[in-house]
Amino acid sequence: MKKYFLAFVLLSFVLCNLGCKKTPTEPPIDNLQPGRRDYVWTVDTLNFYDTMLRLWGSSPTDVWATTRGNFYESIFHFDGNKWSTDGIFRLLLPYSIWGFARNDIYIGGSGGKIWHYDGVSWSQIEVLTKDGHNDIVFDNMWGETPNDFYAFGAYPDDQLLANNSVIAHFINNNWTMLNTDGLQGIVEHLYKNKTDQLIYLQVIKFSHTYDSTFIYKYEGEKYTKLYSTIWAKTWASISLINNEVYFVLENEIAKRINNQFQTVLKIDNPNFYECIWGRNSKDIFLLMTDGLTHYNGSDMEYLFHFNKSGTQIYGAALFENEVFFLVNESQTNLSLIYHGKLNKGE
Questions:
Q1: What does the mean pLDDT of the chain come to?
Q2: What pTM does this model have?
Q3: Which CATH number fits domain 3-342: 1.10.443.10, 1.10.1020.10, 2.130.10.10, 3.60.15.10?
Q4: By the 8 A CB rule, do 153 and 162 touch?
């Protein structure tokens, strides 16, 4: 296996992907109610061999999970009752998935490939290149509307590490490659922040000695570095919660206010592992090395603990009364979906 593909595999084991449907506009902070925690959990097994890495859904009865393990079982779907895969052979290794409706979903893969689902079937619609390179891997996708979204990742450098940054923008029915001069690494997350209307991105740079992560803002076609850290136990990251970008700065969660980081939460638990997902500022889920916790605006509490050490959550799909978490147990090589439903008794 080429080294840059190994780098993508490594990245998948330490980073998570936000894959949730956008929630309504957040009301004023004083009117927010603490997020509930009374979930009833079920666990479904999707795959025994290939790690499921990405998750996205339009509703609790339309959730998709992907893996790049083989060409026959790379796309799984939940219809509200069960998970299934169609077993159709596709020359596709899906690294990323994002959608806007149950009949308008995109997958980004290796080789610069973009696939689309129209509610009936998947088909390849585009193969993108940059500077003559057709070995692009789109590691993630995000966008606001079907005519304004991004696919991003990297292609290999001279050392076969995924460090040549790529950002493709689909707008006005055309794909455009953004200038990524000043970036070096795989673009892992990219979101627009509602408050200041700026784009923020997380870039991971690989090396043969250590890996590092950078957070940038994109303004006036220029990238400004805001934060960086060398990977030790945790990295810096970003997440989109109710159209606001939240910054994970090692053991601190912050927002960007007036060009400054403003602390939202200091995390004392040493088991915190850099990934967060949420509906609003009083309803945030945090990944720990030993399970999943929840912050309700005043305190944190475990929702569940992992049964095996080395377990990781790669993505989430959050809805009003239901949540889905894509979980991998490295000891058993099982890909699991933890599905939580809020207790109807309240």
A1: 90
A2: 0.90
A3: 2.130.10.10
A4: yes
